[in-house]
Amino acid sequence: MSTDFFNTHQQMLEQAVAAASARGYWSPFSESPSPRAYGETANDDGRAAFEAYRGGDFPLRQDGAAGSVGGEVSPFGLELNIRYPQVPAQALIGQSEKALDSWREAGPRAWVGVALEILKRLNQRSFEMAYAVQHTTGQGFMMAFQAGGPHAQDRGVEAVAYAWQEMARIPELVSWEKPQGKQDPIKMQKQFTIIPRGVSLVIGCSTFPTWNAYPGLFASLATGNTLIVKPHPAAILPLAITVGIARDVLAEAGFDANVVQLAAHSASDDTAQALALSPAVKLIDFTGSSANGQWLEDHARQAQVYTEKAGVNQVIIDSVDDFKSVARNLAFSFALYSGQMCTAPQNVYIPRDGIRTAEGRLGFDEVAAGLALAIEKLTADPAKAVEVTGAIQNAATLRRIEEARALGLPVLSDSRSLAHPQFEGATVRTPLMLKADADNPAILREWFGPIVFVVATDSTGHSIELARQTVIDHGALSLSAYTTDEAVAGAVQKAAERAGVSLSLNLAGPVFVNQTAAFSDFHGTGANPAANASLSDSAYVANRYRVVQTRWHA
Amino acid sequence: MSTDFFNTHQQMLEQAVAAASARGYWSPFSESPSPRAYGETANDDGRAAFEAYRGGDFPLRQDGAAGSVGGEVSPFGLELNIRYPQVPAQALIGQSEKALDSWREAGPRAWVGVALEILKRLNQRSFEMAYAVQHTTGQGFMMAFQAGGPHAQDRGVEAVAYAWQEMARIPELVSWEKPQGKQDPIKMQKQFTIIPRGVSLVIGCSTFPTWNAYPGLFASLATGNTLIVKPHPAAILPLAITVGIARDVLAEAGFDANVVQLAAHSASDDTAQALALSPAVKLIDFTGSSANGQWLEDHARQAQVYTEKAGVNQVIIDSVDDFKSVARNLAFSFALYSGQMCTAPQNVYIPRDGIRTAEGRLGFDEVAAGLALAIEKLTADPAKAVEVTGAIQNAATLRRIEEARALGLPVLSDSRSLAHPQFEGATVRTPLMLKADADNPAILREWFGPIVFVVATDSTGHSIELARQTVIDHGALSLSAYTTDEAVAGAVQKAAERAGVSLSLNLAGPVFVNQTAAFSDFHGTGANPAANASLSDSAYVANRYRVVQTRWHA
Question: For the Aldehyde dehydrogenase domain, which residue ranges apply (chains A, B) (predicted)?
Answer without folding.
Answer: 90-501
